[in-house]
């Protein structure tokens, strides 16, 4: 595990980016760069349940997202059976809704016919809608 750097200011600097604050209500993470869950899931309280997003979702100099929330949300929901709270602006919320809906439920429309030589008539052409419905289970929407 990469070393988490404790500071004298009351927070931890995470190796992959972002900051972790240990509070009376649990961990709060500022920023969520890719794979940051690997920095926190071995902590006593596991992955944070509260994330505060930075002003911009993309760090231009590093070329990475600063709001990779899919894995922390999945980890908290499926493995810990807990909800994740995200502190962000209304505009950021709207952007996240689009990304997370597609991540969890898949795209609204799926047309793979151009990916196969004979389109839908190709041998083994998948019924992606049926597969997405199966893996979606009984989940219909997020609670916002």
Summarize the structure.
This protein has 144 residues and is α/β, with parallel strands linked by helices. It has helices at residues 37-40, 70-79, 90-105, 128-136; strands at residues 5-6, 12-13, 19-23, 26-30, 50-52, 58-59, 64-65, 85-87.
List keywords for this structure.
single chain; alpha/beta; 2 domains; 144 residues; elongated; 17% strand
Protein model, in words:
The chain has four helices and eight strands, in the order E-E-E-E-H-E-E-E-H-E-H-H. The mean pLDDT is 85. The chain has two domains: 5-105, no CATH class; 112-144, no CATH class. The chain has a six-stranded mixed beta sheet with strand order 1-2-3-4-5-8, with no helix packed on it. A two-stranded antiparallel ribbon has the order 6-7. Helices cover 27% and strands 17% of the residues. The protein has 144 residues and is α/β, with parallel strands linked by helices.
The tally of strands reads 8
Indicate how many domains the architecture comprises.
2
Instruction: Catalogue the unreliable spans.
Output: none
Shape: elongated
Q: What structural class results from the helix and strand content?
A: alpha/beta
What does the largest sheet look like? 6 strands, mixed
